[in-house]
Design brief:
The complex is a heterodimer of chains A (about 160) and B (about 800). Chain A has about 160 residues and is α+β, with helices and mostly antiparallel strands. Chain A folds into two domains: about 5-80, Beta-grasp domain (Ubiquitin-like (UB roll)), CATH 3.10.20; about 90-160, Orthogonal Bundle (DNA polymerase, domain 1), CATH 1.10.150. Helix content of chain A is about 35%, strand content about 15%. Chain A has five helices and five strands. Chain A has helices at about 25-30, 90-95, 105-120, 125-130, 140-160, and strands at about 5-10, 15-20, 50-55, 55-60, 75. In chain A, strands 2-1-5-3-4 form a five-stranded mixed β-sheet, sandwiched between helices. In chain A, helix 2 packs across helix 5 (about 140-160). Chain A is globular, with a radius of gyration of 16 Å. Chain A starts with a strand and ends with a helix. Chain B is an alpha+beta fold. In chain B, about 30% of the residues lie in helices and about 25% in strands. Chain B contains 20 helices and 35 strands. In chain B, the strands form ten sheets. In chain B, strands 3-7-1-16-13-14-15 form a seven-stranded mixed β-sheet, sandwiched between helices. Classes of the chains: A alpha+beta (about 160), B alpha+beta (about 800). At the A-B interface, helix 1, helix 2, helix 3, helix 4 and helix 5 of A face helix 2 and helix 18 of B.
């Protein structure tokens, strides 16, 4: 199948790659770029394990073509931490026991990251609705809610200190 | 540091230590099977049957082999020379690896395509032409036993007995029973009151978020096979692979990498694994196979599908005198349950529950149908969920018949604290329990009388827009399989194991026969060692899943890790502790009996300043041991449990049902669990939240409906219900601690209790909402549609 050349900025680094037009974004990330953080759980965009951030929106990588990302900026779980400093959502999931098997976690984190940018001071109901595109089979969500609350508080604190 | 600080620094048992495994998962650095890449690796995909029962007239590979990137197509005929087209199941049956002459269920594996990448493999699957001749389909297990029912398993023609005794019909697998039939019959003949109810526990699927898969890599030069596999029991897989392939077990290495949830789905050995291994052996290259979600739900192990007839005999004032149970179990096309060999119905005979029932009898009949094989323990010990559901439903039915409160009847029939160890009518020895105290704690916490008063007021108001239901379950589980005199898998006793090495500088590594799938073993196992040996958790590495390094163990399922492997850790630690004492006595020039153990050190009795810490002792173990003692500081322990453990719980749920829509809202769910000694309260609570949520999913939405042609009407996550954060209720948790007297650290296991216990609690609550209208049973799942139908039937829909 004829390949198409695309240029995508992933976690701050530009990649130029030739891909089959049918290549799914999640396969492009996992197999071409060896970024295996985004996982595949359902292939029908229900579970959200493949969630990445494209140009400021949460997107499910299993139902998005790599060629659709030509010229886009993509953020994956691997791009959340700054060097050895974890992002507040990563810290929150760790501190509040917001993960067990870890398979949904990268998608949850990337979604929580975008959700908190859009909704910096969420209620519990807003958190639950905001993460409802991401399924978790292990935690029952209660500690995920706490993790997002932890991250929200920390991000607000950091913003206050910076101001 | 003073003693309390030293104790805290260990982060031993009882500490809500944060998880050691999280660092990799939150940074996208987990290593799940689909993350594994090997040089030259090929991809496999599977051609599956669209029919539930059909004869294969022919398979044409020619077009598939022309697809760019396709390397090979394998069918049953290709596997026949290696005798790999059928394989033994864990239940003593055989299962087709690739369909041999006919297919027995929809989505059965018919052929595999091996290609250079996963897209080419999928193209190849599309191009394989299979000609089928449809055969009559049997979906209902009762219909399967009709005299003129179609013969499903032609390969078993003439076999009048199977692995579990005589077969009475061509679609019959086994009949298993427990208890005393005559005594139970007598109890019923003499009973003042009897109740009977048909209770169907529908077929559901464990549906972990990561599907099943493997990467098989055969090295033709060395003759060695390495397979990375999503397995909850890698050592058992190694034994089976060796037996099937003829490769010596010493040259087979099975590695379970990080696993994205198991819940029983990843215990079995699936055709995809066998085909990937066979393909790697034939092609001499690594072969990866990863299921998609539709394949996972359609073909890898389901759970439940138990059709149960329960009966209770009782006195007029509610004392239960007898229990009888008859079950027809739909096992699908092949008997591939993952139960201990001697228990084709698992531990279903825990179905006398938390109650002192003098006479009991249970009989389970296993039946073939045109559905996928399985019957695994979905987050429970073998068939324990079905058993608990049965008895808890029946006790509710009896309470309704007698007009008794469901708390009162339970209290009246509980095994009393002083009766432990308690011998049940089915032959179990319950290790410990205090059900009355736990029940009182829950009823007080929720103000049960106030809830009942509120319900009565709502029932009295014809304009009330909701029906209120209160569910109560007081369950006992049996976990920790198990004593090898009773439990084995393929003849291997169900012990588990631990090897600990303490390094010269005082850190340690523990290798285990189990494998974590989210339970946090790398965190909690280290805590046991920390407490036993005085080595900080932080410097203890826990490794599992690699059969080349870990001691042999039976794996993680059936809440057996803490009851079995946890005991192995404690006892391996104690071997090291005993040696450490000898070294300390040598270093301090005193007798062993002159030493006291204190947190992380041995000190001379009455002279705490004269001591040697474990760090000192570790160093000395490698350069200064007493004469006659081997250097080094390590131990291995294989733990064969003397008995199962019996965790229990008291769960209460309040629901409000919208009379106009049937929508059922869980207002409150209060879960008290007693798992004996608690190793890490944070992780326990997390496990309980997760189990309750899975229970909620099963009770309120999960189902695998089939049409008459055997089509599974819902095998994606569009149809198969996994609740989101929005529908999932908020959980309240509580606990009591009744240690197991026979377990080295008193721990019983916990992860499955919330699944096992919560499912009947939801049903108890939903049925309770209709109890005043004479309703005694409603079949799961309690979706709005089904509940609305009940509202209509009961004449209370708005």
């Amino acid at each position: 199948m004829a390949k198409k050349l695309i240029s995508v900025k992933v976690n701050g680094r530009t990649h130029e790659e030739a891909v089959e037009p049918r290549t799914l974004l999640v396969h492009f990330l996992r197999e071409k770029l060896s970024l295996t953080g985004a996982h595949i759980g359902c292939e029908t965009s229900h579970c959200g394990a493949c969630t990445v951030d494209i140009d400021g929106r949460s997107v499910k990588g299993c139902t998005h073509l790599a060629v659709q990302c030509d010229g886009s900026e993509v953020l994956t779980v691997e791009g959340l931490a700054q060097g050895s400093v974890l992002h507040a959502v990563q810290e929150g999931f760790y501190k509040e026991h917001g993960l067990q098997c870890g398979f949904c976690t990268p998608g949850m984190l990337v979604r929580a990251y975008r959700f908190l940018l859009d909704t910096p001071n969420p209620t519990e109901e807003e958190i639950r609705a905001g993460l409802s595109g991401n399924l978790c089979r292990c935690t029952g969500y209660q500690n995920i809610v706490k993790a997002v609350q932890y991250a929200a508080a920390k991000l607000q604190q950091t913003a206050k200190e910076a101001a | 540091m003073n003693a309390p600080d030293r104790l805290a620094a260990l982060q031993g048992m009882g500490d809500s230590r944060l998880r050691k495994e999280d660092a990799r998962f939150i940074q996208g650095k987990g290593n799940y099977v689909d993350d594994i890449k090997m040089p030259g690796m090929l991809h496999m995909d599977i051609v599956r049957s669209p029919y539930a029962h059909a004869r294969i007239k022919g398979i044409d590979k020619s077009e598939a082999l022309k697809v760019p990137g396709v390397i090979a197509v394998l069918t049953a005929d290709d596997l026949k020379p290696f005798k790999l087209h059928w394989m033994p199941t864990l239940a003593g049956d055989v299962a087709a690896v690739l369909a041999d002459e006919k297919v027995h269920f929809q989505m059965q594996e018919v052929a595999v395509v091996i290609a250079e990448d996963r897209y080419a493999a999928a193209d190849g699957v599309e191009a394989v032409q299979v000609e089928y001749e449809e055969l009559p389909v049997v979906i209902d297990p009762y219909a399967a036993l009709a005299p003129d029912a179609p013969v499903l398993r032609e390969d078993l023609a003439g076999k009048t007995s199977g692995a579990h005794g005589p077969r009475e019909h061509h679609n019959h697998i086994f009949t298993w029973d427990a208890g005393d039939s005559a005594a139970a019959d007598t109890a019923f003949e003499q009973a003042e009151v009897t109740v009977a109810e048909h209770i169907f526990y529908p077929r559901v699927h464990p549906c972990p978020l990561e599907t099943c898969g493997c990467v098989a890599s055969f090295d033709p030069v060395r003759g060695e096979l390495t397979t990375y596999i999503t397995s909850q029991a890698p050592h058992v897989v190694r034994t089976v692979v060796s037996l099937l392939s003829g490769i010596p077990e010493s040259k087979v290495r099975i590695v379970s990498p990080d696993i994205g949830g198991g819940f029983g789905n990843k215990v079995g050995i699936y055709p995809g694994y066998v085909c990937a291994i066979a393909a790697s052996i034939v092609l001499g290259k690594p072969v990866k196979w990863i299921e998609d979600r539709i394949e996972n739900i359609s073909s890898t192990a389901f759970a439940r599908d138990y059709h149960m007839d329960g009966e209770l005999a009782a006195t007029k004032d509610g004392k239960i005198t007898g229990l009888r149970v008859n079950v027809v179990a739909d096992h699908g096309a092949f008997d591939a349950c993952a139960d201990p060999t001697k228990f084709p119905a698992g531990l279903f005979h825990i179905c006398s529950g938390s109650y002192d029932i003098p006479a009991a009898y249970a009989r389970v009949k296993g039946v073939y149908t045109n559905k996928a094989p399985g019957g695994v323990a979905y987050r429970c010990s073998f068939r324990v969920t079905e058993a608990v559901y049965l008895i808890e439903r029946m006790v509710d039915v009896l309470a309704q018949k007698l007009g008794m409160d469901k708390a009162e009847i339970r209290e009246k029939n509980f095994v009393r604290k002083e009766q432990f160890p308690y011998h049940s009518a089915f032959g179990f020895e319950y290790d410990s329990g205090d059900y009355h105290t736990a029940l009182k704690k829950v009823l007080d916490a929720v103000d049960y009388p106030a809830l009942r008063a509120e319900q009565a007021a709502k029932r009295a108001d014809p304009d009330c827009p909701t029906l209120m239901g209160i569910g109560l379950v007081t369950f006992t589980e049996v976990v920790g399989a198990g004593p090898s005199k009773m439990c084995d898998i393929l003849g291997v006793g169900m012990f588990d194991s631990c090897e600990i090495r303490v390094h010269p500088t005082g850190s340690a590594i523990a290798r285990m026969g189990t494998i974590t799938q989210g339970q946090g073993h790398q965190t909690t196992y280290a805590q046991i060692i920390a407490t036993e040996l005085g080595i900080p958790s932080e410097v203890i590495q826990v490794e599992e899943g690699d059969t080349s390094t870990a001691p042999y163990g039976l794996g993680t399922y059936g809440s057996r890790s803490t009851p079995v492997a946890g005991a192995a850790i404690a006892l391996a630690s104690r071997k090291i502790h005993a040696k450490a004492r000898k070294i300390a006595a040598h270093l301090l020039e005193v007798g062993e009996n002159d030493l006291d153990w204190e947190i992380d050190r041995f000190q001379v009795k009455g002279e705490p300043a004269r001591h040697k810490t474990m760090k000192d002792i570790s160093w000395a173990a490698y350069n200064n041991v007493p004469a006659g003692l081997e250097p080094g500081l390590e131990a291995v322990h294989y733990y064969d449990p003397p008995n199962f453990t019996f965790p229990f719980g008291i769960y209460l749920c309040v629901v409000d049902i919208d009379r106009a829509t049937g929508e059922t809202k869980v207002r409150r769910f209060y879960a008290l669990d007693d798992c004996g000694t608690r190793i890490n309260p944070m992780i326990i609570e997390g496990q309980i939240h997760g189990g309750l949520t899975e229970g909620f999913a099963v009770a309120m939405g999960q189902q695998m409906p089939f049409d008459a042609q055997g089509n599974l009407l819902g095998n994606t996550l569009m149809d198969y219900y996994l609740p989101t954060a929005v529908e999932t209720p908020k959980w309240e948790t509580d606990f009591t601690v009744t240690p197991s007297p026979h377990h080295p650290i008193g721990a019983k296991g916990v992860a499955e209790s919330p699944h096992v216990g919560s499912i009947p609690t939801f049903t108890s609550a939903v049925v309770d909402a209709f109890a005043h209208l004479g309703v005694t049973e409603m079949t799961m799942p309690h979706t709005s549609w089904r509940v609305w139908q009940q509202l209509k039937r009961s004449g209370v829909a708005l």
